[in-house]
Design a protein that fits this description.
The protein is mostly helical. It is built from eleven helices and no strands. Helix 4 (59-79) packs across helix 5 and helix 4 packs parallel to helix 8 (149-163). It is globular, with a radius of gyration of 19 Å. 38% of the residues are buried.
Length: 239
């Protein structure tokens, strides 16, 4: 049973990853192909943005998100069949909203990144942490910033905690605290403006309240349960 409680999450997780790649990566490709620069939204809450310092070591919680998100998704799924399909639905809806926004209202944070000062020094002068920051800058690109996908995923994780009333307190605290730290790191690494975070949280929170009892959750559960049942990896959802 323990093995099934892990394996049945694989297909929903793959679905979420594919949706994330379509939302984020395809919009990047589209923007690059057509030379779309995007809008610098720093003017929104400009005074607050100007107060945010660049803290290079916060790149570590930032990149930890890539491991944190899958582990949280599987942990939620390990504990509750209903909850994992709920956060899957929330993810798919929020990704779709973000993807549409990226397509029509592309953003650009290159000027924000350059305030880190790293662009005015040779790569040979950068320490390991600073090189890691530059690697993320180069791999992620300056677009697709509003809303912040990092913050969307972290808030989805927090939604998973809120859905599970019986989740152990240490696990709850770990997920919530690390999610908040990662969200803060999007600011201090100069990857996002504060409006990017606000928009991400607002979209996610709205989706949570609208979808947490939606019949669409039952539809997702039925669809994946049929497939997983044929594969012999489904379970009854009861701990």
């Amino acid at each position: 049973m323990t093995k099934q409680r892990i394996l049945y999450v694989i297909l929903p997780f793959i679905t979420m990853v594919i949706a994330l790649l379509i939302t984020y990566w395809l919009n990047q490709v589209y923007a690059e192909a057509f030379g779309i620069q995007g809008v610098d939204y720093s003017y929104i809450f400009l005074d607050f943005n100007n107060l945010i310092p660049f803290i290079d070591w916060t790149i570590y919680p930032y990149v930890s998100a890539y491991l944190f998100w899958p582990l949280t998704f599987f942990y939620v799924g390990y504990r509750s069949k209903r909850n994992v399909y709920t956060i899957l639905l929330i993810s798919l809806v929020t990704f779709t909203i973000c993807g549409i926004w990226y397509f029509f209202f592309q953003s650009d944070v290159q000027a924000w990144r350059e305030t880190s000062g790293l662009f005015f020094r040779p790569m040979t002068d950068l320490n390991f942490t600073e090189r890691l920051v530059m690697t993320i800058y180069n791999s992620a690109g300056p677009r697709n910033a509003l809303p912040s996908m990092h913050c969307v995923m972290c808030w989805v994780a927090i939604c998973g905690v809120r859905l599970d009333k019986k989740m152990p307190l240490p696990a709850k605290l770990f997920i919530i605290i690390l999610s908040v730290v990662i969200m803060i790191s999007t600011q201090t690494t100069k990857q996002h403006y504060i409006i990017d975070t606000i928009a991400a949280v607002a979209i996610c929170e709205a989706a949570y309240w609208i979808l947490k009892k939606s019949p669409a959750v039952n539809g997702l559960e039925h669809f994946y349960s049929q497939i997983n049942g044929k594969l012999g990896i489904d379970w009854d959802g009861q701990i």
